[in-house]
Amino acid sequence: MNILKRVFLLVILLMGIGFTSCEDLLSDLDGGDPRDKLIDTWKVEETIGSKKSTMEVYYVDFFKHPDDSSKVVITNFYNVDAVAEAVLSGNSLSLPLQDLDGGFTLSGKGEIQGSKANEIIWTYSVDDGSGVAENIKEVYTRLTF
Q1: Hey, is 15 helix, strand or coil?
Q2: Of 59, 95, 128, 134, whose CB count within 10 A is highest?
Q3: Are strands 56-64 and 82-89 parallel, antiparallel or unpaired?
Q4: Strand pairing partners for 59?
Q5: pLDDT of residue 11
Q6: Would you list the domain boundaries of the chain?
Q7: Does residue 35 contact residue 64 with C-beta atoms inside 8 Å?
Q8: Looking at domain 34-142, does it have CATH number 2.40.128.20?
Q9: Residue ranges, the chain, pLDDT below 50
Q10: What is the pLDDT of residue 1?
């Protein structure tokens, strides 16, 4: 009888471990909202362009788009106190053609890099309303980890 009790307890213990492992596996597969990896304040280092005489360093914030689960909203985009929208797909971001406050039109793309998704490399073109687009390259670095 003592052996049966031990076998029974061992079976219950193994079943509990199995159920816990399955729950962990299911929660890992769910992964939550993929936009969560972007929601933060980011430091921006912008490459000098023809319309800007020096390299600019400024900050932006990412928020979840309220109406579209594939999009994020970025405040202070291009350091003009405007809001831009980007579409997230895996580790790629796209900036669909859009008009920003202040008369700016932009489109481009970004690539999320780093093991903790702590850097984004952006390349996009922006027209300040003059009809001449400028190509921009920026590096976003997450402020917190």
Answers
A1: helix
A2: 95
A3: unpaired
A4: 43
A5: 52
A6: 1-31, 34-142
A7: yes
A8: yes
A9: 13, 17-30
A10: 54
